[in-house]
Amino acid sequence: MTPAQDPGDASFDAVIVGGGAAGVLVAIRLLMREGGALRIAIVEPDTRLARGAAYSTTQPEHLLNVIASRMSAIAEDPGHFVRFLARNGQGTEAGLADVFAPRRDYARYLRHTLESLPGYDALVHLRERATDIERAEAGHVVHLASGARLRASHVVLALGNAARPLPAYLLHEGARVADSWDYTAVAGIEPGADVCILGSGLSMVDVALTLAHGGHHGRILVLSRHGLAPLPHAGPGAQHEGGIDDLLPLGVLPRWRRLRQRVAAAVAAGEPWQWSFDRLRPHGQALWRSLDDTQRRRFLRHAVRYWDIHRHRIAPQVAATLDGLRERCQLEIVPARLRALTADPVGGSCVHFRPRRTAREHMRHADWIVNATGVETNIDLRPDPLLQALRARGGILPGPQGIGLASSDCGYVIDTRGRPNPHLFVIGALRIGELWESIAIPELREQARQIANAMSGTDPTPPD
Length: 464
What we know:
Elements: E1 11-17, H1 21-32, E2 40-43, H2 52-55, H3 80-87, H4 93-96, H5 103-115, E3 124-126, E4 130-136, E5 139-144, E6 149-157, E7 177-179, H6 183-187, E8 195-198, H7 202-213, E9 220-224, H8 252-268, H9 273-280, H10 284-289, H11 293-311, H12 316-327, E10 331-343, E11 349-355, E12 362-366, E13 368-371, H13 385-393, E14 412-414, E15 420-426, H14 432-435, H15 441-456
Parallel strand pairs: 1-2, 1-6, 2-3, 6-15, 7-13, 8-9, 8-13, 9-10
Antiparallel strand pairs: 4-5, 5-6, 10-11, 11-12, 14-15
């Protein structure tokens, strides 16, 4: 790999824009293909691949939200990740199958898998940013921030998630604000500081874990509209298959009622409620695509947060840490709307919020504000010069409900004329509007396989 070289006007079979988990999974699939070696470039400013927002943490307390036996990068080889952990001295294969491994280990695993493949030496990692993509006679030209250009037969947009910024009008001069994905900044918060976390999803969980494992003893206030936090996984066990034929014709409200009936029946039979959601796991895309636009809007307006906390669960030991913080009255999660952040005369910020179902505004002091409000799904609001340039050219179109990018079933990007571009693909977070389930490893590895097959027309053989 030659990350510092000047690419000039080099030509590649494929240029992957983004070197997080999604981009690396595409590269793995392309290198697995039979036939001649492909020349591949990954355009990624980070010095190390396979990190992205989720896997760039180096902290051992940040765990995967799925057990190791379900996290293989190679769908045809479910034990691939477990064997990697075992070879690295972290236990036996049998003992590791149901472990929630540290996310930093998963990044190492993806890099190891990529580096072990034939043809890896021909892959080029360019520590650059892509700023534009133009159509060319035989593919595309990718423009880099340095002024260099890459000619590519195919381009894959693997841009990952972008954090939703706090509105500027909420902030005051001198406010100390950290982003939840800035793991170093969060770890540097003083142990005695009063912290206000905005948002109560998985990013909030990461922040609370970092503070707890760093010996934090200050107060932690969490504000979100619903005040709902991710729920824990249950222990693994034998589960029967579950269908969705009875759910597909239903709208959001009757579908939710039917699901509650299923869960109640399963619990009455002695099963954890989590297993009912596990049975729905392979059908997430079908459930989303079966809703019409009106029902999708209803889901996004009323049901999405309740779905998320049941669907995107956390490791039991992580949940236990959060429960301990709450039992000690150190962590408080309040359903509320943030009204303003103003300067506190004694330093820090005054957090003004109105709890749900009340008319009276409350105020609390915070030394630090941590933004954990989630991801920006509207491409027109993402501060990405590449997306802005493609939007201006008419090369991309917002996806359903204005979420992500419009794309075809195999990942071709659809332009403003409604035409799929067979040389420009998208993977991962930007397909959420079309697929909804589009950011977890099972979906990413399947999308990577589809993209590789569309480029080469071959069926690759998985590596050991």
